[in-house]
Task: inverse folding
């Protein structure tokens, strides 16, 4: 028995060594290609085991990793699968999640099951979601109780309000803001007793908006920065927008720029979800390390395809992501820091 396994070990070793020789010519890097952002410190590294976590808190909730599942509406049919798979992941692996727009629940109960995921999440942070235009309508109509009831219906920890003026403008059927979102928000916040997060949906926000948000009694800001999924582009791909609007697709602020802006502003008690175009673990890790305020990293589109496939596909995707995050944390430091 032993000699067979010794023989297969030797065969495996010989195969590996053969591969090394064969692949060497294709495995050449250029010094110019080095990632200049990090110091690589192998001397202090141990590989992560599946039980390892990067524990942190977000809005008084314990997370096993500083990773947030950003809000996504699923559309009829898909919504239930997506939300249930994502919530199950967050419950099992102690993450936090924003639901996609719960607008449908303001007017009825038909889609309630799509959003009823609290049982899968346990006590993890789960945020309901509503667009600024819908909030404005309810503020103007004096019907804010409908928002509070919606948050209660889905047993959410609080509410995310998404600011999406360009998306609304690109959509022929889109809503129009009649009063400034700052006024809408200020009026809404007078009437709220649960945590509120404000986010963009892919264009980010500039310094004036961020500064004004920091002065409001909101709990967190989610970037929804430029550089990833872009709803102005998405609406224009639906074939619905005129040529003259198209340059607006390119406006906005990247997550990197938003970190720089926020690092120069006085931050009170708010926390942050760095999101929008965080495509690689190293980009996310760099942003988190650069940002002085408490933050988690949010991703939407990255989770979408595996969440649509199956829970198992989603969990495998997440476990790979987590291992990469822990590897980055263990072996890389930002240059200029110890
Ligand atoms: C399919 C899909 C649906 C989305 N629906 C919502 C939504 O209902 N509410 C919201 O606040 N953001 C929504 N978003 C925006 C995301 O939360 C996020 O801000 C944006 O996709 C940028 O992140 P990403 O580059 O990681 O995808 C959606 C994104 C996707 C991909």
Result:
């Amino acid at each position: 028995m032993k000699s067979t396994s010794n023989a297969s070990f030797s065969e495996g070793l010989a195969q590996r060594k053969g591969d090394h020789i064969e692949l060497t010519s294709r495995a050449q890097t250029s010094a110019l290609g080095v990632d200049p952002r990090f110091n690589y410190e192998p001397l202090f590294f141990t590989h992560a085991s599946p039980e390892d976590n990067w524990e942190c808190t977000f809005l008084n909730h314990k997370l096993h990793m500083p990773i947030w599942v950003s809000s996504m509406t699923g559309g009829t049919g898909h919504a239930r699968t997506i939300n249930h798979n994502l919530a199950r992941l967050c419950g099992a692996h102690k993450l936090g999640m924003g639901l996609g727009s719960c607008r449908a629940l303001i007017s009825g109960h038909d889609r309630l099951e799509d959003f009823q995921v609290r049982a899968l999440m346990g006590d993890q942070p789960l945020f309901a979601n509503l667009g600024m235009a819908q909030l404005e309508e309810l503020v103007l109509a004096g019907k804010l109780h409908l928002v509070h009831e919606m948050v209660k219906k889905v047993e959410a920890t609080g509410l995310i309000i998404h600011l999406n003026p360009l998306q609304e403008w690109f959509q022929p059927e889109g809503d129009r803001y009649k009063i400034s979102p700052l006024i809408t928000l200020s009026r809404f916040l007078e009437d709220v007793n649960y945590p509120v997060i404000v986010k963009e949906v892919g264009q980010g926000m500039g310094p004036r908006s961020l500064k004004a948000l920091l002065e409001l009694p909101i709990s967190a800001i989610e970037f929804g920065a430029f550089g990833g999924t872009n709803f102005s582009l998405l609406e224009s791909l639906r074939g619905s927008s005129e040529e003259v609007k198209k340059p607006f697709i390119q406006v906005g602020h990247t997550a990197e720029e938003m970190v720089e802006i926020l690092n120069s502003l006085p931050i009170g008690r708010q926390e942050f979800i760095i999101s929008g175009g965080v495509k690689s673990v190293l980009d996310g890790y760099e942003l988190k390390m650069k940002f002085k305020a408490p933050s988690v990293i949010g991703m939407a589109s990255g989770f979408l395809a595996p969440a649509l496939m199956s829970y198992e596909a989603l969990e495998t995707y997440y476990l790979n992501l987590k291992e990469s995050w822990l590897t980055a944390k263990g072996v890389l430091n930002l240059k200029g820091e110890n």
